[in-house]
Each structure stands twice: as structure tokens, then as C-alpha cells.
Write a structure and sequence with these properties.
Layout lengths: L1 E5 L3 H13 L4 E5 L12 H5 L13 H6 L2 E4 L4 E5 L4 E4 L4 E3 L2 E4 L3 E3 L12 E2 L4 H14 L3 E5 L3 H12 L3 E6 L11 H13 L3 E4 L3 E6 L3 E6 L4 E3 L3 E3 L3 E3 L16 E3 L10 E3 L4 E5 L4 E3 L4 H16 L11 E6 L2 E7 L8 E8 L4 E8 L2 E8 L5 H9 L23 H8 L9
Parallel strand pairs: 1-2, 1-7, 2-3, 7-19, 9-16, 10-11, 10-16, 11-12, 18-20
Antiparallel strand pairs: 4-5, 5-6, 8-17, 13-14, 14-15, 20-21, 22-23, 23-26, 24-25, 25-26
Helix pairs in contact: 1-7
Length: about 425
């Protein structure tokens, strides 16, 4: 059996491990368009901010690929898949045959049609090579002020890294608040105030419409008419699934990514997909979703690898989840946090003196979302309630009590947790 995996992120690597559990003889080839395989993308902002060293970036070493007998091809960009002949073609014209193929190509930064975006000093920031290029540019040009377009997680972590270097940052966000996808206004306000206290300026309900300068950026013009002098612009307004090379392949694509079933199989029986490039049916909402987080990519990759090698395993689904410290404030968001409707109940707790805010979203007597800012103690218990669909009606009034814990939960649920029958992140 010849397995070809496109992508060396968490989905691709998890698939390698799963395949080798079942098939120790098949040929496994891993293709990545990057220069370095198996590094931790969430750490690139910490590397730029000098909080980690390059040696800390790899989460799989050369020894791993030797042990699992994987042929790794770096700098290998796939431009076409021929599903009739079971071939993938690289940018250099080379073709590789496969019996089973995994698409684990992740996402690529979205670049809006802004005049002047091609100027020197404009970066996206999702890959290690982006960090290297930006660090070199900052050093070479003595950058002291920067604009980050996008107030999501990538934008905010990039902002923190730049501030660690002593650079004044302007965040420009089109929405009415930063982290609008997961945070409500109150949660966003807490982080905004903390950033502003550290010298960052946040411009909401605005965007960049023009990049000015000669060959190199010198300033940006906002939709509001504001002008900001800067030698650095980071475009961080999101990513889109990297599936352009599949357009004429016959592999079914959804609004965003590759559509897969619960075995991570595509519309072509010997082609699978996993991670940020996929769309999976969420049975709780009957919607096709892309959830671009590391644990889900890894879980999907493992399911895909098993099924590629002949062991039938079904993907059990997942929920959006992020845990990150911003401006010195720990935050966690789990599930669907910005849901509205007559059947939705919102519980909140706030302590402005300590920048603590908690929000719970309940629908049909079940917890479906939670936001914690400033105090993330016992967040694992709430995560378990969400992932296991526990009826909270009998203890709903105690959910935000200071001492809320396992003792409040239904006896049978506690028993299963203690005996290890349920997976939950307890803290």
C-alpha cells in the first residue's frame, strides 16, 4: 500500500502514527510545501517575541520520521490531483502515485484587495518562514511602530510579540470589538483595556483601504480617513482552507473546505481529508463546519489514518475551543459563545476590580458555550459539561457559584468521570 499525505501539521502527523499502528509495511510519503516539517505554528509569535528559541519549535524530530519509516519531502507544493490515475503533481512537474491519499493542507492567509498591499513591509504571519522574514525586516529597518490588521487570535498574538520587541502597535478591526468570533462586548473590553494600558491602540469599526509609500510601506489609510505612519503592516484577518489545487479533481468541496464523512473520507473513496482544510457535518446544528484548532486537526488525522489503513473508526466530532493568555490575562472560550434566540439563556458573572468575567450559554437545558476571562479555574469541568451534553437544569443556579465543582454534578456523571469512562479536562 502506498500512502501519500499532503501536509506536515498535526493532522498529517497523527495520520502517520495511526497508519503505522495498523500497517507497518506500507510506503508512507509526507509532502509539505514548507522548509521544515512538524513544527508548532502556535509558537511562531512566541519565537518572534523571543519567548522561545528555535530548538523549541519542533514537536517531531528527524528520529520520528526514521522510526515510522516516512519519506519526507520538503518544499513540495502540490498543484494538482488526478483522481482517475491516482496521481498528485508537484509545482516542479513531478508526479507521485498513491493508493490512499490524505489532504491535510491546513489554511492559507486571506489577503483582501487593498491598494498597495504588494509593498515591502507587508506580511502575513502563519508560518515559520513568515517569522524569519519579519524578524529580519524589523531588524534591518529599525521598525518602532506597526499596524496589525485583524483583531482575532492571530492578530492579537502577533501584537503581543511585536510589543515584546518594544514596537508600538495599532490594531485595526472591522468588527465593533476584538475577538468578535468568540468574545462578547464585555470580554473584549477587558482585553482591550489591558492592551491599551500597555500602549497599544485599538481601532474598531474600521479597516485599511490603502497602503502608501514608495517601494516600502510608509503609512496606511483607514476607511475612516485616519492615517497611521508605519513601516510594518501585518495582515491577520483570517485564513481560508488551502484547497485550490483540488478545484478540478472531482473531490467535493463545500463553501470553505473539503467535505468529509465521519471516517474523514471525501467524495472519492480512496482520498481522505483532515484538519483545517475540511468541513465536517455538525449533527447538533445540522451545519457543515470548519473548526481550525490543533486538537481537532489531530483527532481527525488519527481517524483518517486508521481508515486509510483499513481499521474502521468514526470521528466523534468536536467543538471550538481556545485557551490563550492575552495582555497578561488568561482566557478560555469553549463551544458556541455568541448564540442568540428565545431558547437560549445567558448566565454572567463580572468582577471589574480584578478583570474577571464569566459567561455561560445554555440551550435546551444544556451548556453549549462558555467564556472565562481572568479566572479560568475549573474550566475543564464546564468543558466536560459541554462536550458530554449534560442536562444542567437541576444545578443551573449554581453554575457560577465560586465553589462550583464536581460535587454539584449528577451522581452517575461523577461516577463515570472518576472511573475514567468519560474524557474531560479536569483542573
Amino acid at each position: 500500500m502506498r500512502y501519500v499525505i499532503i501536509g506536515a501539521g498535526p493532522a498529517g502527523l497523527a495520520a502517520v502514527e495511526a497508519i503505522r499502528e495498523v500497517d507497518v509495511e506500507g510506503e508512507v510519503t509526507l509532502l509539505t510545501m514548507e522548509d521544515v516539517p512538524a513544527y508548532s505554528k502556535p509558537l511562531i509569535t512566541y519565537l518572534l517575541g523571543k519567548k522561545v528559541q528555535e530548538k523549541n519549535m519542533l514537536y517531531r524530530t528527524r528520529e520520528f520520521f526514521d522510526e515510522y519509516r516516512v519519506e519526507v519531502r520538503t518544499g513540495a507544493e502540490v498543484v494538482r490531483v488526478d483522481t482517475d490515475s491516482n496521481m498528485v503533481y508537484l509545482k516542479n512537474g513531478e508526479g507521485l502515485s498513491y493508493d490512499r491519499l490524505l489532504i491535510a493542507t491546513g489554511g492559507v492567509p486571506f489577503k483582501p484587495p487593498i491598494e498597495g498591499l504588494e509593498k515591502e513591509g507587508v506580511f502575513t504571519f502563519t508560518r515559520w518562514c513568515d517569522e524569519k522574514d519579519m524578524a529580519e525586516y524589523i531588524e534591518r529597518n529599525g521598525v518602532h511602530e506597526a499596524v496589525v490588521l485583524g483583531g482575532g487570535l492571530i492578530g492579537l498574538k502577533t501584537t503581543e510579540a511585536l510589543m515584546e520587541l518594544g514596537i508600538k502597535v495599532h490594531i485595526v478591526e472591522l468588527a465593533d470589538r476584538i475577538l468578535a468570533a468568540t468574545f462578547d462586548k464585555k470580554a473584549s473590553e477587558i482585553i482591550t483595556r489591558a492592551l491599551e494600558k500597555e500602549g497599544c491602540e485599538v481601532h474598531t469599526n474600521d479597516t485599511v483601504v490603502q497602503v502608501k509609500g514608495g517601494k516600502r510601506i510608509s503609512r496606511v489609510i483607514l476607511k475612516s480617513g485616519k492615517e497611521i505612519k508605519t513601516r510594518l503592516l501585518v495582515v491577520a484577518i483570517g485564513v481560508t482552507p488551502n484547497v485550490g489545487f483540488l478545484r478540478d479533481s472531482g473531490v467535493r468541496l463545500g463553501r470553505r473546505g473539503v467535505m468529509v464523512d465521519d471516517r474523514m473520507r471525501t467524495s472519492i473513496s480512496n482520498i481522505y481529508a483532515a484538519g483545517d482544510c475540511t468541513e465536517v457535518l455538525d449533527e447538533s446544528t445540522d451545519e457543515w463546519r470548519t473548526i481550525a484548532i490543533w486538537p481537532i486537526a489531530s483527532a481527525q488525522g488519527k481517524v483518517a489514518g486508521y481508515n486509510m489503513a483499513g481499521r474502521e473508526v468514526r470521528y466523534q466530532g468536536g467543538i471550538p475551543m481556545n485557551s490563550v493568555e492575552l495582555a497578561g490575562i488568561p482566557t478560555i472560550s469553549v463551544g458556541y459563545t455568541n448564540v442568540e434566540g428565545d431558547d437560549v439563556e445567558i448566565l454572567k458573572y463580572e468582577d471589574p476590580s480584578s478583570s474577571v468575567y464569566k459567561k455561560l450559554v445554555i440551550k435546551n437545558n444544556k451548556l453549549i458555550g462558555a467564556v472565562f476571562v481572568g479566572d479560568i479555574d475549573r474550566a475543564g469541568i464546564y468543558t466536560g459539561l459541554i462536550t458530554h451534553g449534560v442536562d444542567v437544569s437541576t444545578f443551573k443556579d449554581a453554575l457560577l457559584d465560586e465553589g462550583f465543582g464536581l460535587i454539584y454534578l449528577p451522581k452517575e456523571y461523577r461516577r463515570k468521570l472518576i472511573e475514567g469512562e468519560l474524557k474531560v479536562w479536569l483542573e
